[in-house]
# Entry
Amino acid sequence: MKSPLFRRLLLAFAAPVAAFVFAFVLSSIVLILSGYNPIDAYGEMITNALKLESMIDMLNETTPLYISGVAAAIGFRMNLFNIGVEGQYQLAAFAAAVIGAKVVLPDGLHMLFVMGVAMVVGGLYSGLAGLLKVTRGVNEVISTIMLNSVATLGIIAGLFKIFLEKKSGGAVGGGTTPLAETAWIPDLNGFVELFTREITKGRKLTGMLVVAVIVGVLYHLFINRSRLGFDVRATGMNPLAAKVGGVPSKQMVLLAMVLSGVVAGLVGMPDLLSRTHAYDQGFTKLRGFAGIAVALLGRNHPGGMVGAALLFAFLNTSSGILQITGTASSEIVTIMQGIILLAAVVAYQMVGQVKQREEVKLASEATVGATA
Amino acid sequence: MPTAIELIGITKRFPGVIANDNINFSVEEGEIHAICGENGAGKSTLMKILYGMQPADEGVMKVNGVEVNFSSPTDAIAAGIGMVHQHFMLADQFTVIENVILGSEPTKHGVLDFDTAKAHLANVGESYGLTIDPDDFVTELEVGERQRVEIIKVLYRGANILILDEPTAVLVPQEVEALFDNLRELKAAGSTIIFIDHKLQEVLEISDRITVIRRGKTITTVNAADVTAGDLAELMVGEELPSPETTESTVTDTVALEVKNITVLDEFHRPVVDDVSFSIHKGEVLGVAGIEGNGQGELVDAIVGMEKPESGSVWLSGKDVSSHSVRERRDEGFGYVPKDRHEEGLLLTAPLWENAALGHQTKAPYSKGMWIDRKGSRDRTDEIRERFDVRSPNADVSAHALSGGNQQKLIIGRELICDPKVMILAHPTRGIDVGAQAAVWNEIRTARAAGQASMLISADLDELIGLSDRIVVMFHGRLVAELDPSEVTPRLLGSYMTGAALQGGDELQGGDEMDGSDESAGEHTASAMSETAEGAQ
Amino acid sequence: MNFAQFQKLPAYLRWPVLAFVGILVLSIVQFFTDQQLLTSTTTIQTALKWAMPILIAGLGGLFAERCGVVHIGLEGMMILGTWCGAWGALQFGSPWWGLVSGIVGGALGGLLHAIATVAFSVDHIVSGVAINILAPGTARYLSERVFTQMDGGSISQSPRVESLGDFTWPILAKGPDLLGKVERLDWFLISDLFGVLRGLLFQMTYLTAIGLALVPISAFLLNKTKFGLRLRIAGEKPLAGESLGINIYRQKFLGVIISGGLAGLAGSFIVLELAGLYRQNQTTGRGFIALAALIFGNWKARGVLTGAVLFGYPFGLSLRDLEGTATRSLLLVIAIALLAVVVWALSEKNKADAILAGAVAAGSLLFFFGTETAPKWLPGTMPYVLVLLVLVFASQRLRMPAAVGLPYRKGGS
# Structure
């Protein structure tokens, strides 16, 4: 007989592996139909990913994706669909860039201040959707999507011009006034180089990686170990039963929504604090939606989402090499991401059903055993 | 007499259980044939097989002598079989006629032909003495009327073999009589009726022959005229039936729960709970009788703090807890078993230990400070599983995997193990098997003996009468009568529940002795009664 | 007349009354702010055109949600519709083929959603979100494969495509142009009414006519046919349908595929009638606005139309209104509408609504008097704000199909 641990692991990994294999096969078919050689393409992607600099790129990409995934997952654990991470992080990054440039603070403290502003703004903005839900019954999916547009097309677009960097001679720059160096987050190159060769090509591993790890650990402690997290999960599984069990469901909705927004506020920080140092027209977009994908693929699990974020980051950073080497269209990676995601949610569902049946069997065996 | 339905060796397995194990019996044309068995004996599975909703794994089924093989209800309908489900299969937002024609819609040029449908419906109604307005929305109908729609639905399709799955479960005695009249009329018109139930008196009253099923096996088929309820009970459980009798009174003088003038309004600002007051003493079980929807649910919500009442107060051991949240009330000593374990009681996808902690997660051993104590919770869960005989492989299995009875024992166990001062029990034994039912009754009695005050809401009148020290009847949001369970019959209780006893202007029968220490509630009851009586005139 | 009486009116009276009140408010505001754009033929035309994708996609949502499937993937299917619409039109040389291909593209998306949610019981929102992530990626990949090979095409846009064309109602809107004559007389309210009517009939595109016709067709299909009855039972009480021998899976599959097809049609409308080409991110969240229109419309075809017009109007206005004066006037319209909500809420003794509506109305008025022309970002934001506002006041009065979003398994297990 197989050990229960083995079975548990098998069930936990069956779905993502099946989804990955399915996506792999389907993407290969797409590549072949498009006249590319899939072996070449995958080979190129893997060879590239093994280079130190590519790994740095990948980790830099993983960092915001993971944070965004956690932000979405906090909502998901409570059956709240915060589709608004996108708007929340854009607005938070914009506000943090503007306010952060106006203050003078000592090294380090300045950086924490900017992060704090971003978290507060993100939390307030998502809290608005939470408030609409608990007081007015507005579906959070619709409201957060509308608030995304309001944030990017309205608030940021409206205020952007006012806060453009004023250069000498009356000219304006293409973004907000850059943050002083006191607000920059140090890179981790020195630490990495302890174990590897020197990092070249100007690559810098963002210090936000540390923050992402902290976010992941806190998320785990909160959702799986704390009483408040238990209340959140209980409400997500069965709001009525949770209420009977003394959990104030409206407060939980607000709490989960605000926490989700607070974490969402950090999504723009790797860019702001270690790369652009200002909010400009080209500020990275769509990380909020990618975060939803990461949360779905990683099953809202703090560890699972690490894998999901790494996978998406790997695909994102590989698209460039496919373009350069001409082994395949770089856009194939977005298709692969979509297929993996869809295949994964279907696979999770199927494995979940198998698991349920097993449990029912186990439980009824226990019943029979007790009677006999 | 020709045979309408014959089952030979029907077997159906589910993972880990054999629901039907070599079922054999036959139903003659034009008879009312009851299928009897306790909950979980496999009746419902059998009916699903008969009606084509699930295929049998083995066995042969013959309808009117011809072997059939149903792959969906369509086949069963085509063979002249119709089914009235225990849980009504009606869309609330559809009209009666829409519900009736569904699946066999008459059309004219591709458009639904409501005129033809209504004419046919009127025809069917006339021939069987069943009337209903085809344009009413189902959501506006009473329970009895909904059941009539279900029966009409079946007859509309020209079914001559009707299966009724526990049709009396949702009805009060008076409605049951009306249903039985309808069934006799159907029988007179030549229909064959298969009637599933576990209420023995009803079964004996209505049926010609009875087939008893136990643990998925057919035990025997008997003539209703030849057996007594006792015989049937023995056949069903294979042993003496447990009964919900309580021993001598343990009622003390200390008031544990006092509810004063609670009024709850619905969304249209009409009172659904209308100025209700009562008190429960330590060691007392107060039974609340009433047809569902007469405000019991809202009253319970107000008492446990789920909804804020319009006015009134709740006192626990002399302390006003009216402004407390559910959690604060629980911490003060409330225990609550909600009426629907799936909807309100359990986190079905969560492990048992999390379900055990639910409602008590603020206290040791479930938590330490702001953190959940996983080991403490698991140990406590194992204790519950042991003491309350929750049959389960371990504390980590999901709640959905357990049978209904074991789920219910878990819920009752998680409340009782915390020793609440006041326990609110809403339908604690609904839909669980006889063994689990007896266990639950036992726990309630033990807690009562230990001085717990309990409020018991139940639709099972035998349970109410057997367990309660006092019974109050709720009708249209008011407490309209207080009765002594030792002197009341289910029939009399039923007449109070439907308001019949009130509208007839009858005096309280069966003893309305008021608890000496509870005069205000008594006065209130009397005044509420006279108002209701006036309103009816 | 109070609200309760209004609600009792038969539908064929209720909707014209509602439309009339709307136009009345617009013309009053127009009169006081001295401007013509709010009800001019061109504004109405544009507004109608912009309402169409929302309407058609909203009707798509209607078919999915009435059979019990939440359809947040409308946006993704619209995106598939935009790409396929452009591709079909270019490939086969006729916009009608674009239309067909757009519908097929959307329907394929619907099929995918149906497979995930109906066959595999995946959470409806999860599947919808996944499709919304997959669709733009697919469109971009396909563009890279197809449109970059074409003249004037690139990875983010296609070459230009033809429109389906339009027609003008004779006599009323051209030739003698009776409606136009009255509109130009500039009589208070009357001219506005005629302006709106003329806007509907002047150069009405064939596709707009199709879109409008889809409203009664959808209502008829859902309410008066066997197909509709069976579709609706899947969204209200699938087990009841199953117990009468109806194949619920089939109904759900059909509903979701039709839904996808309509979303695809909405996407090709954007390509063929609004933009004249495929462009990346062309749908700008209109799939979600369609969903909001569906919710606002209480899951009824006519309600979707109202929602679509309500949400499409500010889009259309913003395009015509280059100076931002009309959008500024719109602030006044919103304030008036909110004051009406205040009065109504007070008559219903609903203090919370009254205070909230009053506060937002006051804010809107302040904004109105504080500016000469609306800031540039306001027109583009207005539709989204409007959706939020409407949902804030309407959400609690709505009833969605009873079984929407619930997983269904045959045999109840």
